[in-house]
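Researcher: Structure for this, please.
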Amino acid sequence: MFSVGLRTNRQVVVIMLREQRWLVIRALVAVWIGVPLLALAILYALRPPPLSAATLMVMAICPGVPLLLRKTSRVHGDRDTALIVLLTTLATAIVLTPLWALVLDRITPLDLHFRMRDVIVVILPTVVVPYVIGRIINVKWPHVAARLASVANALFIIGLGLIVVVLVIKTGLGLREISVTGAIACILIGFGAGAIGYFATPARVGQRTAIAYAAAFGNPALALAVMSRSYPAKAAPLIVLFLVLRTLSFVPFNVWLRRERKTQQGLTYA
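Model: Predicted structure, C-alpha cell format:
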C-alpha cells in the first residue's frame, strides 16, 4: 500500500467518489454480499473438509488485495476504478469482516471467532500507515514519489515471493491439507466471484475488469490473521495454495476479458 499511496492522485479519488458513486456501491455489494453468498452456496454443495471450507470462506470475507492495482494494470483494467474500490473495500472491511464472521459463526459450523480489533490490528500497520506515508511523500515531494513507487512495488513483490518460498520449504505449500473438493471449490469461487464483479455494473470493460479482480482476490494478510486464531499451524500454507489455484483459474477469465475488450473496441470504432 506504500506504493499505492505514492501513486494516488487525491483529485482522482474525489472525482471517482462524486461521479462514480453508484459504480462504487455496486462494487461493494458484489464484494461484500455477492461473493460471500456464492462461497457459501459452493461450499454447501461440495462440502470440502472443514479446514478447506473455513479457509475459502475467510478468503471470501477478507477482500482488499494490495496488488489489485498491479493485477488490474496487467490486464489493461482501469487503475482509477481499482484504486477507489480497493480503498473503499479496505475501509469497510473494519466493520463488515467481523460482521460476516459473526453471521457465519451462527449459521455454519465454521469456527471463526475474531473481533473488529483483530481486523484493525492487521489493516492499520499493513494498509493505513504505509498508505498515509506514501500520500505524504506524494504531496510533499511528487517527483521523488514517482521514482520511489516503482522501487517500493518491486521490493514488495520480492518480499512476497520470499515469504511464499519459505512457506513452501517449511510446509510443502499445504498439499497435505487440500482435497479434490477443496481445490474445485477454490476454482469455482474464484471464477464465480470474478463474474459477479464483472457483471455488477454496465460500465466500461476496464472498470468492470477492476471490479472483477477486486471481487475474486482476497487480502492474504487479513485472511491469515483471521484463520490463525482457529488453525494457527495450518492456515498460511493453505491460503497460499488457494491463492495460487485462484490465480491459475483466472487464466481463461483473462482470455475472455481480452476478447471482450477487443469486441468493445470494435463497436467503438464501428
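Researcher: Any notable elements?
Model: The chain is about 80% helix and 0% strand. Residues 2-262 form a domain with the Na+/H+ antiporter like fold fold (CATH 1.20.1530.20).
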